[in-house]
Amino acid sequence: MSTDYIKQLFSLDGQVAVVIGATGVLGGAIAEGLARAGAHVVVAGRSMERGVARVEAIQQHDAEASFVSVDVSERDSIQALLDTVLSQQGRVDMLVNCFGVNQKADYLELEDDDWQRVIEINLTSTHLACQIFGRQMTAERSGAILNIGSVSSDRPLSGVYAYSASKAAVVSLTQNVARELAPHNVRVNALCPGFFPAEQNKKILTAERVTQIMQHTPMNRFGNPEELVGVAILLLSQSAGSFITGAAYYVDGGFTAMTI
User: Fold this and answer.
1) Is residue 25 in some structural domain?
2) Domain for residue 179, yes or no?
């Protein structure tokens, strides 16, 4: 009886989820979790090699997945992704925007090109994906979008100024788009990870910085990518998350501000 109830709340059976950035560490964990919860997951990213590898890893769990190439810096490429998914799967129920870049620099030395690159990928591309997929979802009057913010969306971290600004803007974008799409039965939320072993963290994680991060994380460890899955499923579920929109959920081990 209890198992049936949990499945009713959280099952994604028969649904189609597009995870842009599923070729990465965090996106890959979320993609696998959604697939194991019953969704057909479209692994979307630039690298076919990594995308196919992710699909094969998902299929080892007797779950469904396919790969579609996308360049998030190009509106036409994101539109082509949607068109391909509709052609192949006939529907799209969920979108996860789990892509991003980082750039570490002293603030007074931060180059314009580096600033612009981070803002364009992390914020503008998230906007493009929300807009393109949001149009389809509003037409169907059903759907859920999950954007990826960061612990730095509302807490200062030195050395990652463009990244922090872009992720704060992603949370604001999420809240505003959520309000816009709510009357059309489309929900938009943000998941804000703390420190995880993701690729963009490698540029800033010196041994000294790791020690400092642990001092500011009450749970005294980094997160495991799989620890994002439960919140992602909640926020994307048509049942368990049906009245949640415009929210930003932090999964960060209790991380506190670190101005170092």
Assistant:
1) yes
2) yes
Residue-wise pLDDT for 184-212, tens only, equals 999 999 999 998 876 655 555 677 777 77
Q: Is residue 257 part of a domain?
A: no
The answer to whether residue 258 is domain-embedded is no
For position 8, which CATH number holds?
3.40.50.720
CA geometry: angle 62, 67, 70, nearest 5 deg: 155
- The overall pTM is greater than 0.85: yes
Domain count across the chain: 1
The Cα 16–Cα 39 span in angstroms is 5
Residue 260 has what pLDDT? 44
CB 235 within 8 A of CB 191: yes
Tabulate helix, strand, coil % of the chain (nearest 5). 50, 15, 35
For residue 163, indicate whether it is catalytic: yes
Tens of pLDDT, residue by residue over 46-105, are 999 999 999 999 999 999 999 999 999 999 999 999 999 999 999 999 999 999 999 888
In the set 5, 107, 161, 163, the catalytic residue is 163
- For 25-38, what is the mean pLDDT? 97
Domain extent at residue 227: 2-251
Task: Quote the Cα angle for 145-151-152, to 5°.
Answer: 110
| DSSP secondary structure of 35-65 | HHTTPEEEEEES-HHHHHHHHHHHHTTT--E
